[in-house]
Structures are given as structure tokens and as C-alpha cells.
Amino acid sequence: GAVVSQHPSRVICKSGTSVKIECRSLDFQATTMFWYRQFPKQSLMLMATSNEGSKATYEQGVEKDKFLINHASLTLSTLTVTSAHPEDSSFYICSATRANTEAFFGQGTRLTVV
Amino acid sequence: DAKTTQPTSMDCAEGRAANLPCNHSTISGNEYVYWYRQIHSQGPQYIIHGLKNNETNEMASLIITEDRKSSTLILPHATLRDTAVYYCIVGEGNDMRFGAGTRLTVKP
Questions:
Q1: Would you call A100 an interface residue with chain B, using a CB distance cutoff of 8 Å?
Q2: Residues with pLDDT less than 70, chain B
Q3: Angle CA(B33)–CA(A30)–CA(A2) in degrees, nearest 5?
Q4: Do A107 and B43 lie within an 8 Å CB cutoff?
Q5: Are strands B32-38 and B84-91 parallel, antiparallel or unpaired?
Q6: How many CB pairs under 8 A join A and B?
Q7: Could you read off the pLDDT of A57-102 as tens digits, one per residue?
């Protein structure tokens, strides 16, 4: 299957700082990328959908000013958690698709805000 | 707001077939059935998908009922490494919205 790489896999940051997470599709051009959040013992929750060159579409209840998404190319999307707080600690996962095909997921980023 | 219903958990003996059911009674004509699994602290792994016909690949088989209201994922010879949460998702591709999934435990 296609490969989606996420970086970093693990990050610890201080409360009030910002953290950037990268998602790359390594062997295909992704028309759309998605960002998810997963709290312990829960399922994945879709946060936002991003298409290359356009603004991301956020799910209801997700603050777009807090979770900044940039999708500058067909192989790279970034999620920046701004002014992170301990309640933002979670497992963040991206996925990428070509047009209307199955999605391929990154390995996830575990964010801990202290 | 997942459109699928799956059992919360299942056990399977190592070497036996694991049959994971999924109900999706509100599936529409152009929606596919996708299966993913998530091993602890990793991103979901794509397994298989189908529209109407049964599908098979190197990982699993997917059996979809004729009315498309339910499906079964079959792992023919389960191993300990197949222990994971299995998610059944219906959609047209692109955004995958996850339900709670089935926690499959393969036991020696």
C-alpha cells in the first residue's frame, strides 16, 4: 500500500508553546489529507480535511485558530497546535488519499503538553 | 457519527479463522465498505474494501451481503499479531469516520 509518513512520532512541549506536526505522502500525490485526534481508549475523531492549495475544512467543535492546517503541496500537510495546553495532549494522526480511493494513515504523533 | 455497528470485542484462537461482523443498514448505493485495523499506539492500517462483490487480498477476505446491509471481514488464519481494534467504515472514499470498532484478541 501507499506510504504516509508523520513526523515527529512523539513530542513533549511546554504549556503555551506551539507544536508543528508534518504529514507526507511518500509515493503518491495526495489530493486530500485529513487530521484526526485520538484520546486514550477512544476512537479516532476527524478534526479537519485539507485540500492542496485551499483552506482546511474543520469539523464542528474544532477551533481553526488553535489547530492551524497548511497543505502547501500534494505531498505535505502540516498541523500546528498553537498555544498548547495539557488538555491538547493526545495522539494526532493524519491520512492521505488520492481521488476517492482508500485512505492511508501515518503512524501518528503522540503530543504531551506539560 | 459512524454509520456502522460492530461488536465491542471478540476473541479468536490462534490459527483459526476470525470472522468480524459489521452492520451498515443505511449504506447508500455509491458507498464502499472499508476495513482498517489499529494496533496499539499506531496509525490505522488499511485492510480491504469493497462495493458489492466479495473481495480477497493477501490479508483478508470481505464478504458483503447481497442487500449490502452487512458485511464480514475474515482473517483466515489468525495470529497473535492480528490482535487489534478493527474498524468497519462506510463511505465514498476520502474521509474515513471511525466508530468504536471491534477489539479482536487472538489467544494462543
A1: yes
A2: 1-2
A3: 65
A4: yes
A5: antiparallel
A6: 59
A7: 999 999 999 999 998 888 999 999 999 999 999 999 999 987 767 8
